[in-house]
Design goal:
heterodimer, A: 348 residues, alpha/beta, two-stranded antiparallel sheet, 10 strands, 18% strand, globular, B: 619 residues, eight-stranded mixed beta sheet, five-stranded mixed beta sheet, 32% helix
């Protein structure tokens, strides 16, 4: 993990300076250098994965590994813009590689065709950040536990129809800086009167403030105890999307896949059933998640992938560059309402 | 339960493949938007952009690669999209949307228009075209981490111009010329200086001390005395800056010492002692003195960007010297009467402004700024990243789906913030506001469309024979003499009837014999009889009163007026009177042009009015 800039040989070339100019003007050179030294693992190359890949490659990370064991199908090809039209039957990560690399030749983009479940622990340790899409709950919990202790930033995200979420675990102690305007008291030279009108320092000058923040594990975030009074009272302000996520993760675990338009009828039934079970187990009412949800959680909506992929991509950039306050720790997007909410679940 | 095609209900999916949409702009938002549209299932897309690809676009405009630099954005965007969706039907226009070819008929071809623009002039224009064509418009903008999307539907929502937008920031002349207190004042001054020396001279861009500065006067008589005194000197203020510079052969040292720059004019400013009673007085620089100073902080580059170094006074003096010489050569090469146009991406031009601004900052005891920072301010660069554009473009398509279903009650204005608000929202949807009933642009006014030949119809034909006033001189001029052409809209006010009528003109050379004009479509109730719109003053006069037809409320005219409301005419010398607003615009916005050099545009259109992206972070 990059603790200090001097750790690696991080000179930005003139070519990079020209290409990254508009973002260096936003987040600064230091942040760009940290990105430039970071390696990221991205699991799952469907709609959301492709968006995250694009965003990270354009941002200028050192390396991005695309990991996906699945094959390209017509449906998966239509879901994203990196896979060429004649790639049916190829591995998804492999098929996405060429176009991904062309987005920014300065990033090392690799494809890995293994199933993420088959990867040994040490595989993950080579990365500074890991982003998991289309993964089972168990796998995500396992990888999160593995990585957080080694200060590897963990991100999860999925898109289900009009809905999408992202989760982040930046560890017990995530350090970052925030840029704040500099407050300068006028300390003027001798030939000014005490009522000198303007401060000598450029009012546009800013200062960097260091901060530290802690995150919950995924396990604790998903296993909130809703039976205690405090949790119950916070229910009103809790986005229903949190419970929708629980339902969809359970579906994925039980069926080994996500709800599919081809089996809309039976999948809808199953979703309603799972909703009842999940909420009952939590000691909550089914009314928290009205039946209508089933119409809007199938497949991946491209614009929802763009929104969630944009927020998720930016969170990864923030975490790697250690600049600006990260969202803590869930982001839920409801594409029907256009609302995007950040909320915290897990250990306090 | 609904039948699904992918994630969408079948009826929606079907309507997507048949509808036609227009995307205005193929830059940061445009690239993301095109991708989202085709992946969602839109099939018939037209995209227009007048710009070409620059290397600084590549951090976010992902449809472009390095090898495409210099090519048309619209064209390359189309090609890139076709690569992952060959069945999409895309038409690309390397053109300005403000080209009159894209008239109301053109807009009526689409079920939906989506803006992906970076300037207000074009947004205003598209707003009006969509209102005129009654086509829904989705408007959006981004800047840094912030973004916004909204839906505009005539008669149901606010239009883009219903609420006044903040005007771009300008500084008073005396601040620029006499009492700068912030780096931006010095940078604006340096740009003015560039134009005075090498470019198009502009009376609004004086760089020499302003003797008429109200703050300088101990009393009004004193100010008057100063003003006459300086004129009497027969000094430089009589001779234009450029002439003077030419007379010295653009000698950098003389320029430097002359105040133009940094010595003589500063000495003059110092005599205006009241200005310095409460401010730190400027310290003049002398060329020879500077070079006797210890050569200072010119350190090694280190691990930073070269451009981000802040040099010392000597360094900027050198830079000044060097850039003046380079620019002088450029001028000479261009020949007699040549002018340079300032461009942040032209190194000597940027060097000049960096050096001149910093020297002035030094004179006025401000901390100097790196070339990197000066470029941001001088070039009005808006920082931009891929992710913000990705989010906004996703939201645009989601609004588009509701719009196509005519679910306007579901449409929202959505703000993207940098941090969640106290209600935990990062994306904040807000209900759309109804139209502003006194909006000059969209409030319903009676309208009629009239077909005539602008080259052959004279002003008088539009006027009642009862008209009399001293202004008959214009009666025999053709409408086209005033820049009226196809697509022009005239506003006719009749105060006697308390009636305002908007006349849309369609130019035609194919009217029947003896027919002067023809009313097209329905004429509104209470319309005047076809031969006489109403008493009207001649157009030129009307326009003199209403310098800003596009943004101001109706001109307070004494008599009946015919005003050109919306001319598609480009500013040119022959239409100076007809569209003073557009030529004013061209002059005033030197300090605030957007990110693109005039030379890159296919047409030298109106300069983009400003750089705003209309971002408001709401909490």
């Amino acid at each position: 993990m990059i603790d200090t800039i001097e750790k690696e040989d991080n000179i930005i070339s003139e070519e990079e300076a020209a290409q990254y100019d508009r973002q260096i003007r936003l987040w600064g050179l230091d942040a760009q250098k940290r990105l430039r030294g970071s390696r990221v693992l991205l699991v799952g190359l469907r709609g959301l994965g492709a968006e995250v890949a694009k965003n990270l490659i354009l941002a200028g990370v050192k390396g991005l590994t695309l990991l996906d064991h699945e094959q390209v199908t017509e449906e998966s090809r239509r879901a994203q813009f990196l896979i060429p039209v004649d790639a049916d039957g190829q591995n998804q990560a492999q098929a996405s590689l060429e176009r991904a690399q062309l987005l920014n030749p300065m990033v090392e983009v690799k494809a890995d065709t293994d199933a993420v479940e088959s990867k040994p622990d040490y595989f993950f340790f080579q990365f500074d950040a890991v982003c998991l899409t289309r993964c089972s709950k168990d796998l995500m919990v396992r990888v999160d536990q593995l990585c957080a202790s080694r200060n590897i930033k963990v991100f999860c995200g999925d898109v289900y129809g009009y809905h999408g979420y992202m989760f982040s675990d930046l560890g017990q102690e995530h350090h970052y800086v925030e840029e704040k305007p500099k407050v300068v008291k006028g300390s003027n030279e001798a030939n000014d009167g005490p009522e000198a009108k303007k401060p000598k320092v450029d009012p546009n000058e800013t200062t960097m403030v260091k901060k530290t923040i802690s995150f919950s594990s995924l396990k604790e975030a998903l296993e909130v105890d809703w039976t205690n009074e405090k949790a119950k009272s916070s229910l009103k302000r809790t986005p229903a999307d949190y419970f929708l996520l629980q339902v969809l993760l359970k579906f994925r675990t039980d069926k080994g896949r996500d709800p599919q338009p081809d089996s809309f009828a039976e999948d809808s039934q199953l979703l309603l059933q799972i909703r009842d079970d999940v909420l009952e187990t939590m000691g909550l009412s089914s009314e928290l998640l009205p039946n209508t949800f089933v119409s809007y959680c199938f497949s991946e909506m491209a614009p929802v992938c763009a929104v969630v992929g944009g927020v998720l991509g930016q969170e990864i950039v923030k975490a790697l560059s250690q600049r600006d306050a990260p969202h803590r720790n869930f982001f839920f997007f409801d594409g029907l309402k256009g609302s995007g909410v950040v909320d915290y679940f897990g250990s306090k | 339960m609904a039948k699904l095609v992918g994630p969408l209900r079948k009826e929606l999916a079907d309507s997507l493949s048949s509808c036609r949409v227009l995307v205005v702009g193929a830059g940061g938002i445009g690239c993301e938007l095109l991708k989202n549209l085709v992946l969602t299932g839109f099939k018939n897309i037209e995209v227009i952009d007048l710009d070409t690809i620059d290397v600084s676009n590549l951090n976010r405009q992902f449809l472009f690669q390095k090898k495409h630099v210099g090519k048309s954005k619209a064209q390359v965007a189309k090609e890139s999209v076709l690569r992952f969706c060959p069945s999409a039907n895309i038409t690309a226009y390397h053109d300005s949307i403000m080209n009159p070819d894209y008239n109301v008929e053109f807009f009526r071809n689409f079920q939906l228009v989506m803006n992906a623009l970076d300037n207000r002039a074009a947004r205003n224009h598209v707003n009006r075209m969509c209102l005129a064509a009654d086509i829904p418009l989705i408007e959006s903008g981004t800047a840094g981490y912030l973004g916004q999307v909204t839906v505009i539907k005539k008669g149901q929502t606010e239009c883009y111009e219903c609420q006044p937008k903040p005007t771009q920031k300008t500084f008073p002349g005396c601040t620029i010329r006499n009492t700068p207190s912030e780096p931006i004042h010095c940078i604006v001054w340096a740009k003015y200086l560039f134009n005075q020396l090498f470019g198009e001279e502009d009376a609004d861009q004086e760089v020499s001390p302003d003797t008429a500065d109200p703050e300088a006067a101990w009393n009004p008589a004193d100010a008057a005395a100063r003003a006459t005194a300086s004129n009497k000197d027969g000094d430089i203020k009589r001779v234009s800056t450029k002439e003077w510079a030419r007379s010295t052969g653009y000698d950098p040292v003389k320029l430097f010492n002359k105040v133009q720059l940094f010595k003589d004019d500063i000495m003059y400013l110092l005599t205006m002692d009241k200005l310095w009673k409460k401010r730190k007085a400027p310290l003049p620089l002398d060329w020879t003195e500077i070079h006797h100073l210890e050569s200072s902080q010119e350190e090694a580059c280190g691990t930073g960007l070269k451009d981000q170094q802040v040099l010392g006074v000597q360094g900027y003096a050198q830079l000044f010297h060097h850039s003046v010489e380079t620019l002088r050569s450029q001028l000479i090469e261009k020949g007699e009467g040549a002018e340079l146009v300032w461009d942040k991406d032209d190194p000597p031009a940027m060097d000049f402004v960096t050096a001149a601004a910093n020297l002035r900052m030094n004179v006025f005891s401000m901390n100097m700024k790196s070339r990197f920072d000066v470029k941001s301010m001088a070039g009005n660069i808006i920082p931009a990243i891929a992710t913000t554009n990705a989010v906004i473009a996703g939201l645009i398509v989601l609004e588009a789906l509701k719009t196509l279903n005519s679910e306007f009650d579901q449409c929202r204005t959505i703000f993207l913030n940098k941090q969640p608000n106290p209600r935990k929202k990062l994306l904040v949807p807000c209900a759309l506001d109804p139209p502003n009933p006194s909006c000059y642009v969209c409030a319903s006014k009676p309208e009629v469309t009239v077909k005539l030949n602008v080259h052959k119809t004279i002003v008088q034909a539009l006027q009642d024979k009862r008209f009399k006033s001293g202004l008959e001189t214009n009666n025999n001029k053709f409408l086209s003499d005033f820049g009226i052409r196809n697509g022009s809209r005239l506003q006719v006010d009749d105060f006697l009837q308390d009636y305002t009528l908007l006349v849309n003109l369609i130019h035609s050379e194919e009217l029947e014999k003896d027919v002067e004009f023809e009313v097209v479509g329905d004429a509104p109730d209470k319309a005047p009889t076809p031969s006489v719109p109403e008493e009207g003053k001649n157009i030129a006069n009307g326009n003199k009163d209403s310098a800003q037809p596009s943004t101001s409320s109706k001109a307070a005219a004494e008599d009946d007026d015919v005003l050109i409301v919306d001319s598609d005419e480009e500013p040119s010398s022959s239409t100076m009177e007809a569209s003073p607003e557009s030529s004013n615009r061209k002059r005033k916005h030197h300090g605030t042009d957007t990110d693109d050099a005039a030379s890159k545009r296919k047409r030298l259109d109106q300069q983009p009015a400003d750089d705003d992206e209309d971002i408001i972070a709401l909490d």
